[in-house]
Amino acid sequence: MRDDAPRSWDSRAEAATFYGFTDLPSVAQRGTVVLTHGEGPYVFDTAGKRYFDSNSGLWNMVAGFDHPKLAEAAKAQYDRFPGYHAFFGRMSDQTVMLSERLVEVSPFASGKVFYTNSGSEANDTMVKMLWFLGGAEGQPQRRKIITRWNSYHGVTAVSASMTGKPYNSVFGLPLPGFLHVGSPHYWRFGQEGETEEAFTQRLAHELEATIIKEGPDTIAGFFAEPVIGAGGVIPPSKGYFQAIQAVLKRYGIPLIADEVICGFGRTGNVWGSQTFDFVPDAIIASKAMTAGYFPMGAVVLGPELAQRLQNASEAIEEFPHGFTASGHPVGCAVSLAAIDLILNGGLLDNVRALTPRFEAGMAELAGHANIGEWRGAGLMGALEAVQDKATKTPFASNLSVSERIANTCTDHGLICRPLGQSIVLCPPFICTESHLDEMFEKLAAALRQVF
Ligand code: PLP
Predict the structure, then answer these.
(1) Rounded CA gap, 380 and 266, in Å?
(2) Cβ–ligand 1 contact at 124 (below 6 Å)
(3) Contact criterion met (CB below 8 Å) for 373 and 384
(4) Are 422 and 277 members of one domain?
(5) Which residues of the chain have pLDDT under 50?
(6) SS3 state of residue 385
(7) 349, 430 Cβ separation under 8 angstroms
(8) pLDDT tens-digit series, residues 7-38
(9) Nearest ligand 1 atom to alpha carbon 156
(10) Is residue 279 located within the same domain as residue 292?
(11) Does the beta carbon of 286 lie inside 6 Å of ligand 1?
(12) Are residues 46 and 163 part of one domain?
């Protein structure tokens, strides 16, 4: 090729962008899909091909890709006041309003909000808050963090240490003091003859044994996603959060709900913790909080943690932590508009209305000989591919069946995500039943082609 010959988008993408979370052999073989615009739940590539995005971007684009109200909220705020932080005794009016709104929609009677740019940073921030409290309250040894295997909490050094995925070992993570207990996936980890209730009790005992072994006064907090998301959409086993919270309460350990995926409607309630009937001590939020139209995250503290952190900060005059764009007024304006769309604009109602159709479609696909189970909550679900349905024998891990299914779907104009041996679906909240039908038809066609 001549040096001045036009190069494809594909080769330009690969030449100058360093990929993360991307299967490089697959990109080498298939190239990169370069996207230019979106319409509702669809995105379009440089060749004009249309894809239904059953992943809502990365769980976040819940209002689709061209919602005028979100673009207008951002534009209006850019025109009015484009940027500020939430420190040094100053913050924007939008930040004030969003904090009030977040506390109002939270499960807490009162509370406080701290802003970040992402979910990872919000988890990091919460861990630093817990470490800060330990030091301030005369318990500097209270630093250990417990999470679950298969959980996903982010990519910063701390949030990746919390994440229960083996791939983080390439970074030498987890850092010391980050402990993992069992995943509440009954179908996969329940033992022969064990009831779901007994499985839940086994996990609660494991947690308690871990706390006792490590020393209860060394544990700073327990973090859990109401439904594990990037670990393959794993809802809790029956009674899980009630059993876990009883153990944590016995030892005075806060329960932090990482609601980055579940928060703002995904499971059919504002919070996943509502769907699974527990009230945490604090909430980690991001993603749908701005419907993906601005990068933003938040720690929403319940009343007790808010008060203790306030006291500890006043004792040394400040909480020494924050990001340049914490509480960015454009992000806050977008978030206020997104929350309004979800709660008052019919999006949450639509999640509830679509859930039976979503569940029926998942159940039908789970009838396939190579789908071991489907699982999910609200508008998030996963189909687990297995080699042998009766014995639940997985495909060999080097045989990425889910990757092949997802690639075939891409060919058919459907974006869906392979996660381990599962295919994950979490369509935007603005979908109609016919969008779901299109999604399931394309996925069924891909399954027929792959198996
Ligand atoms: N927590 C959960 C439950 C997530 O699913 C994610 C991202 O997918 C994160 C935290 C990290 O958020 P971010 O990618 O915005 O840093």
Answers:
(1) 7
(2) no
(3) yes
(4) no
(5) 1
(6) strand
(7) no
(8) 899 889 988 999 999 989 888 999 999 999 99
(9) 16
(10) yes
(11) yes
(12) no
